[in-house]
Amino acid sequence: MLFKLNLITLSMIAMSSPIMAANFAVGNANMESVNTTNYECNRCTTSAGYQGEVAFAVGYNDVDDIHAGNAFGTASNGAIATVSGDIKYQGESGYRANIQAYQLGMDNGFVHLSGGQAGLYKINLDIDSINTYKAGDVQSSLWHNNGLLTPYNSINEFDLNKQREKVGLGFKYGQDFYGMFVKYNQEDKTGYQSSSLVSPNPINFGLPIDSTTQQLDAGLHLLGDNWLTELSYFGSYYENNIDNLSLPYVNDVYSAAPDNQAHQVSLSGQYQLDRTVMNGRIVSGRMIQDENLIQMSGNPLQNWDGQVDTLDGRFALTSMLTNRLRLGGSIDYSKRDNQSSSAEFAQYNFNSLTGAFRQNTPRDLERNTYKVNASYRIASGYRLQTGYDRKEIERTFSDREQTNDDNLWMKFNVRAVDNFNVNLKVEHANRSGSLYEASTLTSSENNSLLRKYYLADRDRNAFELKVIHTPTDWMSLDVTTRYAKDEYDNTKIGLTESEDYGYDVNLNIQFNQYVDGYVYGSQQWINSHQVGSQSFSSADWQDDIEDEFINLGTGLSYSGLMQDSLTLGIDYLFSNSISDTLLYNNVGNANTFSTYGDYYSYNHSASMYADYALSEQMALKLTYRYERYFDTDAANVGVNDIPGMITLGDINHNYNAHQVMLSFTYKLR
Entry's Pfam families (predicted)? Predict the structure, then answer.
């Protein structure tokens, strides 16, 4: 079910609300005891009027693969044009307005309009266009026509891409001790995405996308000298305009994503008592899905009648006990009560009807999270932080009904050394829980020795070291390194070990007042080991999966040319990702192995520009962009490469793309 709202999203929305932050602005300073009668501002000037800039650009795209549109902003081949700008208006009476536009005329761009009275109300309108491209000219021997996938002699070609058009309207009002907001947005998504089904042989096809998501948010807040509270509503409504798909010889072989909606009401607040701050939140919600089900023999339900009731709560406290010691803690509670329909269904065993009946079991989930932490300033420039987190989860009708995650962490920060800032973090985590049962109720078709990685016992050890060094006022160096290892010692079949490590390096240099540059690089390695059983008994095969990611970049800019009118610059980025899988067919004979469907990709991106100032208000900029992209995925094969299988063809990428743009910028004063 495509429920859009969740606890994490709502937490971010609630905690990012303007009323949740203390206001330390100069305008809120206590000036009652200060005599300002004779104060005079000799440098204050009115900023009423228009400010900002607008840019017009024309150019040319040399693109033979639509995937380049992800980097260039448009997949169009040939002439292109775009408009961007940021214009602000401020009136004498406090009225303010703002227009922001980015890449209008391209496949990806946005417009933001806002206006209102400063400190009183604000109205905004947002229009966004977001396109993501996976592959172009995809080949398929199936034609989609009003819900019917029809085999055809000729090859059908289409693009795998998603177009999202989003429109939003918002209103905010606030005065004295109260305020309110209302936001509405609608997103229309169209395009094609890859999908598959088995009927009776594997079939890969382009699944059409045509859906609408509407979201309505509203809230009211009140605040006093040392407290604030907010009552909010969040609603999401999803409608899929694509129905179930059929083949000429059988109906409803592919179920469409069902329409659904979600509603949540949130009450949050914060209170400050001297040097102690307390805040809390309680959220009640309901997610609903009531679409018709595909009818088949043995199905007793006409529609799903799905309903999940949610209850979430949080209480957090932080207190400065002394000028050196700060203590904090929080309690989070989350419950998912599944009230969906249940009935007796006929059971299938490897596509054959067993004659047995079993009732579906709506699963509930309850989560409690406890956190305590302390921060102590040892001396000037030395700070030590430590904390303990515990997460308890109970699941009904699950392989493991209860899991407990414990995490102990420590951070040490040093700022006392000249030109150095050192941050070190170490942590140890452990997961345990109730007896793991591969019962007939939950996983009768799974090996009883199998342990799902998110439920299995696990030990994790990790550390991160970050050093910021500024040896001179014209150079800065940031270095970060990290390592984490997970061990699943009690797992006989499944993921048994995983490690993740890497580094980031950033170097910025200002050679002189005209020339500056940067260099950065990062690498990450993720290695994992898992064991399986082909014979549905003890382990008889294992594999090692090695993933590697590399990102390298550099850039240089030279200003001050032609009497400070011309600036030249260049940027370059290289990224590479490799995934290798080694499969050992016999655990006892590790010398016999084979590779399994490796993945490899790399990307070279370069940009060169010349920015020339015609005057204080006008400028011309010539930009050239280049992208070299290549990837190969063993899972992508030709249309007729595998007998009996219908595929989407080889949709790997191997291309060079170019873009040239000439832009004119005009600054308003």
Answer: MtrB_PioB
